[in-house]
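Subject: sequence -> structure tokens, single chain

Hey, anyone have a minute? Need the predicted structure for the following. Not urgent.
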Amino acid sequence: ISQACLDRFEQNQMDFKRRFVT
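Reply:
Had a minute. Here:
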């Protein structure tokens, strides 16, 4: 797995959590 892919995955997770909380 490339670092860029991991970074994007983390950002997606954060965005999902934020969307879920808000």
